[in-house]
Design brief:
This protein is an alpha+beta fold and 397 residues long. The chain has a six-stranded antiparallel β-sheet with strand order 10-9-8-13-12-11. Strands 2-1-5-4-3 form a five-stranded antiparallel β-sheet, sandwiched between helices. A two-stranded antiparallel ribbon has the order 6-7. The radius of gyration is 36 Å and the shape is rod-shaped. The protein is 41% helix and 21% strand. Helix 2 packs antiparallel against helix 3 and helix 11 packs antiparallel against helix 15. It has two domains: 144 residues, Beta-Lactamase (2-Layer Sandwich), CATH 3.30.450.20; 181 residues, 2-Layer Sandwich (Beta-Lactamase).
């Protein structure tokens, strides 16, 4: 297991050559008089190679060790290698090496070696295997040290990039109200609860949510004055608030994508429509940002599906809506704003001043834009809930 909590794989971090395999196989077998030949092979291996006695005393290094450390065999034989290691890695290395040569188990660890050329500490993977005689007794240890510094740095960069990507993905997923966390897709509110232990209300009190579950929903015709829906509208805390960049971006995007003269976000109270944001309104509506009396939004909030009206004057159900004459609304497209609680608090709307045959792609776009509005509302509510969780004594407005 490496410093980053990931299993170290030999084929990823260690350079293996036929010479190394030959040398290791040789040391595993009975020792002969031509061990010098195999020590010569050690110089051809692109790693630091060393050997040790059964008691852990290091008695041989290849030339790469001396080139890297700038030290001699006399200085580093036995336990003289300790000054080469980073102080933070020394104790762990001693414990692992002592455990290996006292138990006969393979040795593997990671540590930083100081390079003589520039004083830099570079990460290495140290490994060693026992060489046994015919009776199974350990007669030698054969070890290698592989420079894995570049891999470690790359892994750290990837970790940081992954963490940063996770932040962006959580933000992006929050817009669509879905987050991948703990091996499953979940709503953003569930993510906050799972990750931080924060329960969000999303514009409706727990008591009201419980009431919805036990009593069911009011008939669609009564949606405009439904107390639970109105409570959800007011709990957003957005009525009579100044326009904000987040909502304004959505209405501007909607006007461009839908190719219409005006788009707006409406929160529907029991006696008025409050325009959270708009793009294309003329005065005085642009400044007043609200309308009293019947509007097309009153029809939109009756359900959870888009309301599509290609020609308002040609449709008897909508021809008498006051804004047909007062504002010249000839075509209307809207998607309801449905909170996680299930309450419809308003609509994302698009209007045209001439009849407009709304296409399927425009209807889908309006629905997506409504989802963005809902996510913005939910995120603001979740932020307030999160702040309350962190600062329970503070009153949040």
């Amino acid at each position: 297991m490496n410093q980053w909590g990931s299993a170290v794989k030999q084929d990823q971090l260690e350079v293996v050559s036929p010479e190394r395999n030959d040398l290791e196989a040789r040391f595993r077998g009975p020792l002969t008089q031509d061990d010098a030949h195999y020590r010569t092979l050690a110089e051809a291996i692109p790693q630091i190679v060393w050997t040790a006695n059964p008691d852990g005393w290091l008695d041989f290094y290849n030339q790469r060790w001396f080139d890297y450390t700038g030290l001699t065999l006399e200085q580093t034989q036995g336990w003289g290698w300790e000054p080469v290691l980073h102080p933070d890695d020394l104790q762990n290395c001693i414990l692992r090496w002592t455990h290996a040569f006292t138990t006969g188990e393979p040795y593997e660890t990671e540590y930083r070696f100081k390079r003589a050329a520039d004083g830099e500490y570079r990460w290495h993977l140290g490994r060693a295997l026992p060489v046994r005689d015919a009776d199974g007794a350990i007669v030698k240890w054969f070890g290698t040290c592989t420079d894995i510094h570049d891999q470690k740095e790359a892994a750290e960069v990837l970790r940081r990039q992954r963490d940063e990507l996770e932040k962006h993905l959580v933000t992006m997923c929050a817009w669509s109200n879905t987050v991948w966390h703990g091996g499953e897709w979940m709503t953003f509110s569930k993510y906050l609860e799972s990750r931080f232990g924060v329960k969000t209300t999303h514009g409706i009190s727990p008591e009201a949510a419980a009431k919805i579950e036990t009593e069911g929903r009011v008939p669609a015709a009564g949606a405009l004055t439904d107390p639970t829906r109105l409570a959800a509208v007011r709990a957003t805390g957005l009525l009579d608030t100044p326009s904000t960049a987040g909502f304004d971006r959505i209405t501007r995007l909607g006007a461009s994508v839908l190719n219409v003269p005006a788009t707006f976000i409406s929160l529907v109270d029991d006696h008025r429509d409050f325009y959270l944001s708009h793009c294309g309104f003329g005065e005085p509506l642009a400044s007043e940002r609200q309308l009293s009396g019947q509007t097309f939004c009153h029809f939109t909030i009756q359900g959870d599906r888009p309301l599509i009206i290609p020609d308002t004057r040609a449709d008897p159900a909508y021809a008498n809506v006051p804004t047909v004459e007062s504002l010249g609304v000839a075509a209307y497209l809207a998607a309801p704003l449905v909170l996680l609680s299930g309450e419809v608090v308003g609509a994302f709307c698009a209007i045209d001043f001439v009849p407009h045959a709304w296409t399927e792609s425009q209807v889908l776009a309006a629905t997506d834009l409504a989802s963005l509005v809902v996510s913005e509302i939910e995120l603001r509510q979740a932020a307030l809930d999160f702040q309350r969780h962190l600062q329970p004594a503070e009153t949040i407005r």
